[in-house]
Design a protein that fits this description.
The protein is of the alpha/beta class. It contains 23 helices and 15 strands. Helix 1 runs parallel beside helix 7, helix 18 crosses helix 19 and helix 18 packs across helix 21.
Length: 552
């Protein structure tokens, strides 16, 4: 078969042994994990990518191992402009960084490259040439129509679909006839000549799924396409072998490919790496059915979605860990001051059937995360978000830095911090009333049971006695006095016992003031809000509210 191999790959003068010397075993301690993230540069990074890349990084990090980025671009038709840049950027936004691999469209770091498959063409062809020489590969001249015809025959016969056995037309084709066809420039691909027996079983121990049983592979898969580039299966084997990957962590959509991949490793007398197949993230759709989170149907499948919403990347990662390891949430609750780097990932704690993606839970985790930050950290996070997505708010935050930090500190430095913010993107809507520039054309949520004359009385009475130097007890006592003077009960318990004896309670007084300065009956601590606004601005707010009521 040497003549055929040399004809197909005339420019390949290296051997597999040469590449084994070029890519020696890594000098790492026993038990160290080497894994990778190997996306195609075909579009945006989705949440499934973030899930699998984070898990891969985490298990490598836990063992002081290596995590590298390999770009699988052998399907040139699907490659998009700046695809690698987008991958690196989206992952970096979530602190997913690499020890080796591509760092831009053209640059890489590490000693086991190239880390982009289209630049490894000669390496793949060297391995394919060796298979040809050993009679374990052959050229196949089937046209697409012929392959489709075979598929139709198999369907009618209810046979397995694929290129194998009697359906493998060129498996035992005469070598000299093959040489003639190649010299006549007939198009062809190179197929692996499988020695497997479909009636025999193999067992594979998956780190997540456990023990799996498959029939041996007997498909003569394509390993080199007509353009000279490898298929996913063949490139996967060659790259993970030469880059000395110890663990392959990927979506379980590839689990059916295991017999092929294991067979390729064994054909070259190489010990296969360990596999860990992650089940897809699931979603409950409008009909109540459970389905896989979809890149096309679900905007939340794109990681850019969370960036645009202003959900802190740390909160997204916390949620990913919650989904990835069933024991993480309990660990985190009892180790609130620890870094997630201190948590040890356990494959046995990964769901083997697929976790439900719960956006509400993600927001709740984000809310809890933000509540634990200092006011300065919240400010920095909002500032960074606003710089990209809301220049109006960015300019206000920059102009009133110290004031803004004080706003974010309301009800923060206490045993149970307030949990209003589930993302940086919705903070402006919740604090807009603290900025005069944003307080225009507002709608007030006054209680409809209280008429405007009564509201005016309360506001006029309050502004006369307000003193921003009062402590909280004095402030509240003055508010009670106003209530008593105007016929409102200053004691909530007493009011509940005899509501008909009063116009309302102290809660109504505070809500009138609250709505006048914030527009809403719901807000953080009113005392802190008023103290930050100051008497002059409070008076201005009261006047605006009264004017709005009179113009109704």
């Amino acid at each position: 078969m040497n003549e055929l191999a040399d004809l197909i790959f005339p420019n390949i003068d290296k051997t597999v042994a040469d590449y084994e010397k070029m890519y020696p075993a890594r000098e790492l301690k026993e038990g160290t994990i080497v894994t990778r993230f190997a996306p195609s540069p075909t579009g945006f990074i989705h949440i499934g990518h973030l899930f699998s890349s984070f898990v891969a990084k985490k298990v490598a990090q836990d063992t002081d191992g290596i995590f590298y980025l390999r770009i699988e671009d052998t399907d040139q038709k699907r490659t998009v402009e700046n695809g690698i840049t987008n991958i690196i950027r989206d992952l970096k936004n979530y602190n997913i960084t690499f020890n080796e691999g591509m760092i831009s469209e053209t640059e890489e770091i590490g000693n086991y490259g190239p880390y982009i498959q289209s630049k490894r063409k000669e390496i793949y062809q060297t391995f394919a040439k060796e298979l040809l020489k050993k009679g374990l590969a052959y050229p196949c001249f089937c046209t697409e129509e012929e392959v489709n015809d075979v598929r139709e025959i198999q369907k009618r016969r209810k046979d397995r679909i694929g290129y194998y056995g009697e359906y493998a037309k060129y498996r035992n084709f005469d070598e000299q006839e093959a040489i003639k066809k190649i010299k006549n420039n007939e198009p062809y691909v190179v197929r692996f000549k499988s020695m497997g027996d479909y009636n025999k079983k193999i067992e594979i121990n998956d780190a997540i799924k456990g023990k799996l049983t498959f029939p041996e592979n007997d498909l003569d898969i394509v390993i080199i396409k007509s353009d000279g580039l490898p298929t996913y299966h063949f490139a996967h084997f060659v790259d993970d072998y030469l880059m000395h990957t110890t663990h392959i962590i990927r979506s379980d959509e590839w689990i059916s490919s295991l017999p092929i991949h294991i067979q390729l490793f064994k054909t070259f007398n190489v010990k296969p790496p360990k596999y860990a197949h992650l089940s897809p993230l699931m979603k409950i759709d409008e009909t109540g059915s459970k389905r896989k989170l979809s890149k096309r149907k679900d905007p939340e499948s794109a990681v850019s979605y969370y960036h645009e919403k202003g959900i802190p990347k740390e909160a997204v990662i916390l949620y990913i860990l919650t989904v990835a390891n069933s024991n993480f949430e309990a660990w985190y609750d009892t180790n609130k001051d620890a870094s997630i780097d201190d948590f040890k990932f356990d494959f046995k704690k990964v769901s083997s059937s697929g976790s439900l993606f719960d956006y509400d839970k993600l927001l709740n985790i984000s809310k809890n995360y933000i509540s634990r930050l200092t006011a300065k950290e919240v400010y920095d996070g909002v500032l960074e978000y606003a710089k990209e997505f809301d220049l109006e708010f960015y300019n206000l935050l920059t102009k009133y830095k110290d004031y803004s930090i004080k706003i974010f500190n309301i009800e923060r430095e206490q045993k149970k911090p307030r949990k209003d913010y589930d993302s940086y993107g919705n903070i402006k809507d919740q604090v807009f009333y603290m900025y005069d520039e944003l307080f225009s054309d507002v709608t007030y949520d006054f209680d409809e049971k209280i008429n405007k004359e009564e509201i005016k009385k309360v506001l006029d009475s309050y502004i006369e006695i307000y003193d921003e130097n009062d402590d909280k007890d004095t402030w509240f006592s003055k508010m009670q006095n106003i209530g008593d003077n105007l016929g409102y009960c200053s004691n909530i318990k007493q009011y509940k016992e005899n509501p008909d004896n009063y116009k309302g309670s102290i809660a109504d007084i505070s809500n009138i003031i609250r709505v006048a300065v914030t527009t809403s009956r719901m807000s953080p601590d009113l005392y802190e809000i008023l103290k930050l606004l100051g008497k002059d601005r409070i008076k201005d707010r009261f006047n605006k509210a009264i004017q709005k009521l009179e113009n109704k």
